[in-house]
Amino acid sequence: MSIIYKICDAAIWDEAVAGGRFRGAGIDLEDGYIHFSTASQVEETAQRHFRNRPDLVLIAVETDGLAIMWEPSRGGDLFPHLYTDLPVTSAVSVAPLTCDDNGVPRPEGGYPAA
What we know:
CATH topology: ADP-ribosylation fold
Number of domains: 1
Order of helices and strands: EHEHEHEEEEEE
Number of helices: 3
Structural class: alpha+beta
Oligomer: single chain
Largest sheet: 4 strands, antiparallel
Shape: globular
Helix content: 10-25%
Strand order of the largest sheet: 1-4-8-9
Radius of gyration: 13 Å
Strand content: 35-45%
C-alpha cells in the first residue's frame, strides 16, 4: 500500500465527495493534472503553496489502481501526478488543517513521517 497526499480547500473536497470524483483545484485544473506530494514532500508543499489559507484539508490517497505518474518538479524531486479524475474512494483519510503561528497549515498531530 502506497500513500500520497493532497492539500485542498475543504469545500472543494466536499463537492468532490458529493459527486464521487475529485477533478482537482486551482493549479491542478490549470496544469491538466492533479498534484500530489509524498510524506516527505507534503509539509514543504504546505509551507510554499498554502500559507495563511484557512479551511484546508489533508487527503491521504491510496495509489493502488491509480495511474500515478512520477515527474520531476522542485529541485528535480519526483512528485506524484494524476492525469485523470481521482475517485474519492481512493482517499483513506481526510484531516482538517489549522495554520500555526507562522501561517503554515498543519494537521493535528503533525504531518506523516516520511
